[in-house]
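User: My instructor asked us to take a sequence, write out its structure as C-alpha cells, and then describe one feature of it. I'm not sure where to start. Here is the sequence I was given:
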Amino acid sequence: MANPQAHQSFSKSRTSTQSSGGIPEAKGIEKRKLSQKRRTLPLQLSMGGHLSPWPTYTSGQTILHKRKPCSDDSRNRANSWQQQPLSISKPRYLEQLENYLRKELLLLDLSTDSAQELRLQPYREIFEFFIEDFKTYKPLLSSIKNAYEVMLAHQREKIRSLEPLKAKLVTMNEDCSERVLAMRAEEKYEISMLKKEKMNLLKLIDKKNEEKISLQSEVTKLRKSLAEEYLRYLTERDARKILIGDLNELRYQREDMSLAQSPGVWGEDPVKLTLALKMTRQDLTRTQMELNTMKANFGDVVPRRDFEMQEKTNLDLQEQLESMRADYAEVRKEHELLLQLHMSTLKERDQFYAELQEIQRTSTPRPDWTKCESVIAGGSDRWLVLAEGKNSDQLVDVLLEEIGMGLLREKDFFPGLGFGESIPPFLRFDGPVKNKKPSKKEVVNLLKDAWKERIAEEQKESFPDFFFNFLERRFGVNDAMAWAYTIFENIKLFRSSEIMSQFYAVLMGKNLESVYINQKETMSHLLKELISVDSQNEGSITMEQLSTVLRTTFPLKKEEQIQELMEAAGWGPDSSNSDMLNYRLLFGEDEEGQSEPLVQKLWEQYEHEKEVYLEELKQELGLDPLDEVTLLKMRVTLMNIDPTMDKQTLSAYLSQAYQIPAIDVPLDDDEKQGIISIKVETAFDRLKMADTKRVGPREPEPAS
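Assistant: Let's start with the prediction itself. The C-alpha cells for your sequence are:
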C-alpha cells in the first residue's frame, strides 16, 4: 500500500524523467526516494493515466480516505476511490495483455524440441509492450531485458558446447559396457579355471590326508612295539645285575675257602694278607662297578657296521613301500575306471538288448531287392546303378521315386489347388493344369538356372515370388503356372536328388536361401584352396596336401570327420600319401545333379554339426520347449557355448530367432533384452531354418 509522500515523489520523478528523456543522475535525496519506491507495492496503469494499486485497491481504500491529501489531484483521486464500488475489475490494459498472451500460447506448437524458446517469445513481446508504454521505466526495463537476454545467450552457448561432451559420454558409456562384458567373460573363464584348480587341490589334500592317517597308524604301532622292547630290556638289565652280584658273592666265598685250605698261607703275615685282601676286594668292587656301568650304557648298542646295514635295508624297504603305494594308487584308479566302464557297458548292453528285443518284435524279414530288377525300367543294369551303396531305407525311397515317376508320366493334367491362404502363391490356381512332362535332367538344369539368376540379383522379392516370375520370364505368362505345378510335383517326388530336395526345402520355407548359398560358397572356397596348393597347375595333388587343405579350411572339424572326408575323396587304407588325386573331379555333378561323395559328405557333416550345436544350446538353456526364453538369456547362452562369436553373427542369430531386424537387436541394452521373449521351441525351429553353425571352439585356446 502506497503513502501520499511516496506517490508525490513518484510523480515528480516521472515528470523530470519524461522532460529530460532519460534517467537523472543519482543524488542522496533521490536515492532515498528510489529505495522508498522499491518498498512500495507494484503499480499498474489504470484509468486516466494514473497508477492503480490493483488488486490491493479495495483493501486499502478505507485507509486512504482518512489520510490528509498532499495535493488536489490526490484529493480527487481519493474521492473517486471512495465512490467506486468494492468489487473493482482488472485494468483493461492488463486484461488485453493477458488475452494476447493466452492466444499466442495457444497458437504455439509445443511438441517440437524448441518449444521452450517459442514459449518465451510471447512473454518477450509483453515485456516490450511494457517498455514502450512505460516511458519512464524504459531504460531500466531495457537494461533488465538485455541482462536476461545476455544470460540466455550465454546459457545457449554453454549448452551447445556441452553437446559434443554428451555424445562423447554416450560413446564412452558404450565402450565401458563392452569392456565390462569382456571383463565378465574373462572373469568367468578365470573362475572356471580356479574351480578346476580347487578340485585338483582338494583331491590332492584327500590323498595327503589318507597318507597321513596311514603313517600315523604305523607310528602308533612302532611306538607300542618300542615300549614293549624297552620294558623287556629293563627287566633283563635288572636280572643281569642280580645275577652278577650272586656270582661275585660265590667267587668271594670260594677264594676264602681256597685261602683257608692252602698250606702256604699260614706262613704269611695275617695282617698283611688281610690288608691285601681288603685292597683287592676294593679294586674288584670298583672294576665290577665300571663293568656294570659299561654294560648298562653300551649293552644295547649295536656295532656301526650292523647299524649301517640295517639303515640301508630300511631305506630299500622305504623305497619299495613308496613304489608299491604309487602302484597301488594307479591300480586303484584303473580299477575305478574299469568299474565305471563296466557299469556303462552294462547299461549299453541292457539298452542294446532292449533294442534288439524291440527290433526282433517289430522287424520284418529282409526284403529281396533283386525282385525289383524286373519292375524298374532299364532292367538289372539300371537297378544295380541305383542300388549301389544304399541301405534298405534309401532303396525304398529309390523304389518310390521310380514308381512315382511312372505315375507322374501317366498324368496329363494336375488338379488346381485353389486360392486358399495355406496354398503357396505360385500354386494358387483353380482348374486343371497341364503336365509338361519334362525329364529329370531338364528339371535339374532349370533349377540350376534359377539358382544362378537368384544369386546374381539383389534378392528384393521373396523366393516363391521369384520362382514364379522366373518361370514367367522363361516360358511366358500362359505356361508359367503349368511349369510351376510340373516342377513342384517333380521336386516333391525326387527327395534323393540333392538339388531338388534343397530347392524344395527353400521353396516351402523349411530352409533359408542362405543355407544353400553359403554351402556353395564353402565349396567354391575349398576349390580355390586346392587350386592354390596345385602350384604346377596340373589338376592333381597328393593325399597329404588334400589333408592339409581340409584341416586349414575346416579348423573346427574333428580328426574323425577329416578322415571321413579323405575316404570320401578316394583315400583308402591301402593308399599312400604320395598317391596323386584329380581334385577337380571331386566337385563335379552328373546329368541329374547328383554331387560327388566328398560334397555329399560335407553336406551330411554340416547337418550333423548344426543338430549338435542346437542341442548343446538347448541343454545350456535348461528350459522346456514350451517355456519362454528372453533375448538376454539367449544372448548370454550363445556367448557361453561359442565365446569367439562376433557381434554381427550374434545379431544375425538373435534376429532370426526373434524375427526382428538385425540392426534393431539391443545388444547393449540389458533392460530391453529382458523384455523381449519367445517360446524355446519356436526359437529353435527358426534357428534350424537358418545357416546356424559354430563360429569358434567352445573354450578359446590360451595365448602362447
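For the description part of your assignment, you could build on this observation: The first helix runs from residue 4 to 20. Try explaining in your own words what that tells you about the chain.
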